[in-house]
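hey m, so remember when u said the tokens were messed up on ur end? i reran from scratch. heres the input so u can diff it against urs
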Amino acid sequence: MDSAHGLTENRIRAELRSARRTGTSDAEWESFEARFDAEFPRLQSLFHRIYGPHADSELLQVVLDAAASWQDRPADLKTLDASRAMAPDWFSSNKMLGGVCYVDLYAGNLAGLRERIPYFRDLGLTYLHLMPLFLAPEENSDGGYAVSSYRDVDPSLGTMDELADLARELRGNGIALVVDFIFNHTSNEHEWARRAVADDPEYRDFYWIYPDRDMPDAYERTVREIFPDDHPGSFVQLEDGRWIWATFHSFQWDLNYRNPRVFRAMAGEMLYLANQGVDVVRMDAVAFIWKQLGTTCESLPEAHLLLQAFNAVCRLAAPSLLFKSEAIVHPDEVVQYIDPGECQLSYNPLQMALIWNSLATREVSLLAQALERRHDIPDGTAWVNYVRSHDDIGWTFSDEDAAELGINGHDHRRFLNAFFVNRFPDSFARGVPFQDNPRTGDCRISGTTASLAGLEAGDGAAVARILLAHSIVLSTGGIPLLYLGDEVGQLNDYGYLDDPAKAGDSRWVGRPTYPADRYATRQDAATDAGAIFTRLRHLIDIRKTTPELAGGRLVPFDTNNAHVLGYQRPGLLDGEESTVVVLANFADSPQHISAETLSGLPETALELLSGEPTRLRTGLTLEPHGLRWLRV
């Protein structure tokens, strides 16, 4: 294939042949060339759409970098690439279970985390997401999201060699390693940032730097403020008077992806991490990576093209690496990032928010509507479903969806905010407001699952609510993700208020240190920690023996009861068609599902959680916050 204005494919092939090292075997080089044949036309097309044919010289360097990275890739990772190519839907198994934690808070350092691997195996983890652990400024780190080097681990946690060793040991225990790839911005202490500010010609265009306010003012007419408490607008002033784009915090500077050298540099960092044994990269703040004057600079078409181009590069040099999108935006935009050629995995922020909505309202209409309308995604992809994350909870449901159910979105968000920060009568929740605006009622919610569900308030239904919420993420399809410590009911940690570096960010309330006392009693069902852990382990174990819960296919089931959520998970059992019907009661009182509603099902079903047959012909009564997983 010839490029009309740039390099020809034959020229690139010639350059590639010269890049082959003497120690690279014929088989390994042939595998790279086969992937080049499959992926290069797509990569070149994407590069041209983003940068134009005049950037083919950078494209050549990207391909040569990929060839070098493939030849550097450890043999055990190449073996993993080959095995996952034979089972590309490995992440859709009903045996998948994810966990997420901060290394320092949960285990002290990487060595301490390795000591917890036996527990991870006992819990059933197959996927471990470590929150940002790369070198970051001591003071202004944004929880590690202000990266000063993608190739250096925070020294207090360990070294990159230790991370690679941890990845290898996790892999040997059947656990995939997930890390954040913060690629919208770097910290202001990154070498690229330092050299850009120093006007180094190689780096001056790595960021958006302007001599005066003319262009910043023009952009800010249409972009929104993300963290106005940190800095108003989207730009901050440098010491020399110039202005630099900083979407999130004043110390996080946005990269300029209009410069193809930035693409090449970040692709190199990504491949380096893949060669350390990282299985999945969480693509942070994907909606913001492309800027266009006169737009919101969020979720623009070029953002998707860039993700697809990064994906194509990884297929060349680290073919088993997966992307997970983090797009906390309108539900219509979230799904636009989910595709086998873009991001194979995606957080499911809508389901998460609506689980909490149903717990507060005791009604399931919005959640049932979302499962019916917004759950399906392409084959070869999967949701990552979670009850809560390290971050705040934002009410990301669509106002249009809510209006169809007679709900005013603005007013309902104000209610939810009030409810979850205990400003509503009889609320069980003890959340903490984040980015609170008392004038408008706008805010987002911070807190641990247990504190939000009522355990901190001493509410008697708290344990049942915690299990109910987790049962949804365990049974709707995709990868269920636990915030580690929540499985033993960890509570809010208000100690963050005593740390000047954290006191201004209420999200730290939901990031406690390792709750050793709760883990110590996790086997004692008479304790809150034990009641949560033992019953949650039971749900996890049943899921792993229920093949119908693999994949993501979900069929709605109308319970004709405003308080009871229903859905069906069709699949195969021993090669035969089988379906599991899930029922979940969000009410504080018993709820009955009529015989007429269940009349389309067989007379009896096997209730998987109890292991007992259940008669359906006379209807079914669920206890408060009760669950049924019915195989029919």
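this time it looks ok to me. Residues 1-5 have pLDDT under 50 and may be disordered. if urs says something different then somethings off w ur setup not the seq
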